């Protein structure tokens, strides 16, 4: 369970991530996390609270990293419970203290694992049959155009690495594309021929010598 949290934060944050141990001070900027609370609800289920502390240069950076941490942990079924701004007295560095709440269930192997939220995104995004990274947020709506009802899809990524950003934005630059995604109203995957109406990407941070981008927003409309 804790490894899944570590991997999610490591992928979702453009800074070093580690378990919180007193003998290892966090990097700057950096993220540390630990199990704050484990409450047994019944023999097969428990309430879990994970504490995440972000050590950053500016309060704005703390806000940005907090959004990325929330987006990274949401698919695991962890939702933001509390948040607090703080500052290290010795150094003056800024802190963002977060707590995420979720549920763990006992599996057939005898180990507990996090229960994904029933509201967690199940995007399963494919462009022209090629899998792309699942979005941080995806919404669909109907729009009227020249007497026709068309589907419009908004896709948002909180953060993308350079290869992922290239893949997503290259797809958006096509004259048309086939977007496949999970449609909760139908309870199944839907494939639509679409065209990108708008694409926006901002360069954010450097991580391991690469620029990460976020947020990245796409607006696609059925053709």
Task: Record keyword descriptors for this entry.
223 residues; alpha+beta; STM4215-like; seven-stranded antiparallel β-sheet; six-stranded mixed β-sheet; 3 helices; 13 strands; 17% helix
Distance between the termini: 43 Å
Which range does the strand content fall in?
over 45%
What is the arithmetic mean of pLDDT? 85
> Mind telling me the C-alpha Rg?
20 Å
Tally of discrete structural domains: 2
Main sheet strand line-up: 8-7-11-12-13-10-9
Low-confidence stretches: none
Helical content, roughly?
10-25%
Main β sheet profile = 7 strands, antiparallel
Number of strands: 13
At the fold tier of CATH, the topology name of the largest domain is STM4215-like
The name of the CATH superfamily of the largest domain reads: Phage tail protein-like
Number of helices: 3
> So what's the CATH class of the largest domain?
Alpha Beta
CATH architecture tag of the largest domain? 2-Layer Sandwich
Shape: globular
Outline the structure in words.
The chain is α+β, with helices and mostly antiparallel strands and 223 residues long. It has helices at residues 2-12, 59-73, 162-172, and strands at residues 17-19, 30-42, 45-56, 79-87, 94-106, 112-114, 126-127, 130-131, 137-145, 148-157, 177-183, 188-207, 210-222. It folds into two domains: 1-115, STM4215-like (2-Layer Sandwich); 126-222, no CATH class. It contains three helices and 13 strands, in the order H-E-E-E-H-E-E-E-E-E-E-E-H-E-E-E. The strands form two sheets. It has a seven-stranded antiparallel sheet. Strands 1, 2, 3, 4, 5 and 6 form a six-stranded mixed sheet that branches. Helix 1 (2-12) packs across helix 2. The model has no long low-confidence stretch (mean pLDDT 85).
